[in-house]
């Protein structure tokens, strides 16, 4: 057994004085490698992500936090042994712990007995005491940051998350961390102290004892809401353990026990051999976990990295003549903007290493039949028998060409092309508009009260602010404010505005999903509403209170507003009149279940509304009557959510799915018959896909790996792909133009064509 994996193309062979020999994992701040020190000692080296390395303020915070973390000493921590915050790519090294993470142990071997959980808690409490004694707050204690060794648990990444968290908060306006382990005070923007780590410790103990989070699973938004507003579910815990966990999970930080109190309370555990508080593999770990830990400790450290495949970076492509024929893309409308769920998960703004030429240089990105880049689809390679992965004929090889037209000195978060302009939120948090044909700057709207770009409709740019609750209308031509409406315009009496979960601009109206807090002492913790504002004036047209949890997905088509609500009886899909807010019908999408069931993607076509949820189910419902037509659930290793947008064309529903807990895991693209729900094809992707529409008989989509793909609309076989960026390209399409973040901090415009075949 080994805890590391071989190095991959592009991984470093040396970081500072450390020789890299394997991969240990990755996280929100960087990638972790197994390394040998100059003296041969096993070391874990973390190299930070490029987008953080390019932020001067991050480097300052990183250096400060590393200095603080070096002061931490204790038997249950993995100490920082070396670091270089000033390197081209900052890094730090810690002592290597050859053990399982708590998350891997529970996922593989199941829940822990009370004895082991109490032992785990006492060791973690002692680790936190050492961390807090050095005036450091961890702020990201979670199962993957707890390693299990024979002589006790080890806490890693203490203090380092603060630097990354502050940077991401600055660039995204979202709370960054692991849902279910972040304390309520962190989620609502208050100061986080040592008591926040106690909350996370309580959540870890609940996870080890029950195998699930104390606040359920599903989308981050729903979990975080329950952390702030609902009590934890501790039904599966023994009484004595449930009591201490409940105190750790108190909403008020002042009511939680101190780590010293926890050490005294949990440290009285007795091992299987009758000894008290003695950490050996046989005394505190569950037997199957102890066996794995022992095997990992015995595994030899490699002397040198295993042989890896050649680097698959994009080769230099010479400048070529413009194609003689450019296909016209039949592309669906771009989504109304990134979902609040994605923002709350903390998807970082990408400032990546450049993969395109600098402004003014004409570059053609050409990939023929996937020969130059690895395929995104696991089953899309030609098998040599002329058949695709699903047994259908393989389409002839096509050439996907993206010819750059211009670039602009600011990348945009989910740009929108409308009326000859490209509008988006820049990495500087201001709203920008550039000429779609030339890339020349048109205007910048830098009011800090408009922090989130929502969309464009009928010559109006709409932005919202989660900080003060305003919705603003901005003239598309001039960039001047037309109106601004405060949340009090649609806040119900007796409630306090909390946040916008979704804003959609359609048909001259701004439709808003919002959450509101209720007064202290209320039987319920919060409520929701759907509201409609006149896009020309900002005047409130109507508001409809929602008693239960309102899904963030929202669609407005043909005078009807569609959305999902998680109620006591399960998840219901609603249709409201777009002019009045009156309910037209209500469809029971899933049976009663405490957690999950969130509606995540909606599309309407030819009298049918299609929507996907976070339980892997795609639904088709009659748009007039709200009656069921069919449901489809793809085969998957686990529960997945349907991603925005869904694309409906020529009698087929195309949709992407991805992991419910991560935006950067693998995904899949599916094609389903629109009239029956019969599966036509499914293909796996290296990262979560975002669909963009159809081009010359092919489905066009991009992934967070930075690659633009086509998939044959009939078979799903992927005949062509092209690299746009080193990360999420944030691509949007308008005819045969694509606008995207090229990974170099710039917005790029390219003309696309798919030829041959």
Which features would summarize this protein structure in a list?
757 residues; 13 helices; Transferase(Phosphotransferase), domain 1; 17% helix; globular; 6-stranded antiparallel sheet; 5-stranded antiparallel sheet; alpha+beta
Structure description:
The chain has a domain at 14-298: Transferase(Phosphotransferase) domain 1 (Transferase(Phosphotransferase), domain 1, Orthogonal Bundle), CATH 1.10.510.10. Helix content is 17%, strand content 36%. A hairpin with a 2-residue loop joins β33 (640-649) and β34.
Write the layout of secondary structure elements.
Layout: E1 14-15, E2 18-26, E3 30-36, E4 42-48, H1 50-53, H2 56-69, E5 80-84, E6 91-95, E7 100-101, H3 102-109, H4 114-133, E8 146-149, E9 152-155, H5 160-172, H6 184-187, H7 194-210, H8 220-229, H9 239-248, H10 259-266, H11 281-284, H12 287-298, E10 330-331, H13 340-345, E11 364-368, E12 398-408, E13 412-418, E14 421-426, E15 431-435, E16 441-445, E17 452-457, E18 460-464, E19 471-475, E20 481-485, E21 496-506, E22 509-517, E23 526-534, E24 540-546, E25 549-557, E26 560-567, E27 570-577, E28 583-590, E29 599-605, E30 608-613, E31 618-622, E32 628-632, E33 640-649, E34 652-659, E35 667-673, E36 679-685, E37 689-695, E38 698-703, E39 707-712, E40 720-723, E41 732-734, E42 737-741, E43 747-756
Antiparallel strand pairs: 1-2, 2-3, 3-4, 4-6, 5-6, 7-8, 8-9, 10-37, 11-12, 12-43, 13-14, 14-15, 15-16, 17-18, 18-19, 19-20, 21-22, 22-23, 23-24, 25-26, 26-27, 27-28, 29-30, 30-31, 31-32, 33-34, 34-35, 35-36, 37-38, 38-39, 39-40, 41-42, 42-43
Helix pairs in contact: 2-5, 4-7, 4-10, 7-9
């Amino acid at each position: 057994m080994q805890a590391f994996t071989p190095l991959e193309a592009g991984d470093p062979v040396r970081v500072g004085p450390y020789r890299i020999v394997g991969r240990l994992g990755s996280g929100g701040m960087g990638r972790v490698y197994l390394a040998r020190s100059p003296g041969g000692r096993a070391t874990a080296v973390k190299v930070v992500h490029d987008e953080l390395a390019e932020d001067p303020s991050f480097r300052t915070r990183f250096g400060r936090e590393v200095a603080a973390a070096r002061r931490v000493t204790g038997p249950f921590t993995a100490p920082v042994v070396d670091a270089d915050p000033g390197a081209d790519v900052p890094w730090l090294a810690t002592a290597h712990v050859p053990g399982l993470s708590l998350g891997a142990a529970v996922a593989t071997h199941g829940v822990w007995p009370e004895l082991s959980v109490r032992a785990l808690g006492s060791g973690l409490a002692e680790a936190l005491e050492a961390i807090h004694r050095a005036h450091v707050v961890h702020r990201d204690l979670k199962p993957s940051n707890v390693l299990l060794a024979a002589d006790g648990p080890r806490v890693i990444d203490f203090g380092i998350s603060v630097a990354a968290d502050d940077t991401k908060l600055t660039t995204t306006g979202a709370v960054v961390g692991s849902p279910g382990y972040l304390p309520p005070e962190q989620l609502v923007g208050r100061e986080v102290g040592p008591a926040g780590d106690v909350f996370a410790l309580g959540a870890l103990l609940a996870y080890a004892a029950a195998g699930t989070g104390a606040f359920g699973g599903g989308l981050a938004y729903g979990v975080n809401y329950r952390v702030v507003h609902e009590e934890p579910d501790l039904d599966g815990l023994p009484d004595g353990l449930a009591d201490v966990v409940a105190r750790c999970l108190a909403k008020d930080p002042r009511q939680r026990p101190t780590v010293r109190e926890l050490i005294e309370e949990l440290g009285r555990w007795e091992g299987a051999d009758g000894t008290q508080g003695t950490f050996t593999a046989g005394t505190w770990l569950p037997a199957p976990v102890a066996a794995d830990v022992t095997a990992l400790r015995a595994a030899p450290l490699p002397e040198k990295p295993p042989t890896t495949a050649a680097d698959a970076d994009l080769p230099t492509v010479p400048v070529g003549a413009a194609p003689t024929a450019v296909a016209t893309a039949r592309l669906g409308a771009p989504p109304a903007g990134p979902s609040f769920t994605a923002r709350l998960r903390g998807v970082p703004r990408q400032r990546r290493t450049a993969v395109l030429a600098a402004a003014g240089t004409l570059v053609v990105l050409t990939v023929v039949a996937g020969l130059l880049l690895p395929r995104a689809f696991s089953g899309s390679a030609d098998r040599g028998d002329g058949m695709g992965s699903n047994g259908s004929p393989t389409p002839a090889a096509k050439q996907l060409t993206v010819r750059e037209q211009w670039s602009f000195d600011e990348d945009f978060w989910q740009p929108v092309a409308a009326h000859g302009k490209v509008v988006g939120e820049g990495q500087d948090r201001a709203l920008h508009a550039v000429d779609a044909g030339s890339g020349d700057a048109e205007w910048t709207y830098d009011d800090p009260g408009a922090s989130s770009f929502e969309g464009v409709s009928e010559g109006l740019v709409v932005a919202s602010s989660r900080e003060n609750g305003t919705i603003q209308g901005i003239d598309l031509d001039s960039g001047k404010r037309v109106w601004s409406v405060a949340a009090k315009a649609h806040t119900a009496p007796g409630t306090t505005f909390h946040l916008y979960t979704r804003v959609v601009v359609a048909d001259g109206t701004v439709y808003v999903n919002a959450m509101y807090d209720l007064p202290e002492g209320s039987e319920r913790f919060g409520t929701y509403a759907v509201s409609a504002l006149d896009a020309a004036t900002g005047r409130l047209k109507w508001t409809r209170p929602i008693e239960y949890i309102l899904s963030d997905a929202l669609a407005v088509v043909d005078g009807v507003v569609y959305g999902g609500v998680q109620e006591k009886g399960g998840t219901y899909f609603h249709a409201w009149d777009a002019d009045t807010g009156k309910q037209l019908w209500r469809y029971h999408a899933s049976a009663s279940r405490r957690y999950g069931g969130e509606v995540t993607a909606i599309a309407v076509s030819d009298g049918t509304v299609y929507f996907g949820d976070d339980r892997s189910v795609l639904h088709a419902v009659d748009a007039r009557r709200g009656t069921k037509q069919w449901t489809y659930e793809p085969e998957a290793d686990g529960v997945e959510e349907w991603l925005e947008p869904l694309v409906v064309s020529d009698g087929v529903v195309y949709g992407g799915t991805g992991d419910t807990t991560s935006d950067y895991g693998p995904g899949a693209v599916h094609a389903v018959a629109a009239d029956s729900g019969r599966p036509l094809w499914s293909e796996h992707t290296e990262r979560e896909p975002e669909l963009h529409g159809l081009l010359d008989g092919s489905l066009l989509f991009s992934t967070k790996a930075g690659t633009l793909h086509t998939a044959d609309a009939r078979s799903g076989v992927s005949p062509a792909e092209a690299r746009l960026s080193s990360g999420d390209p944030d691509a949007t399409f308008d005819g045969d133009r694509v606008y995207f973040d090229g990974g170099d901090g710039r917005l790029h415009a390219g003309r696309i064509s798919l030829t041959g075949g």
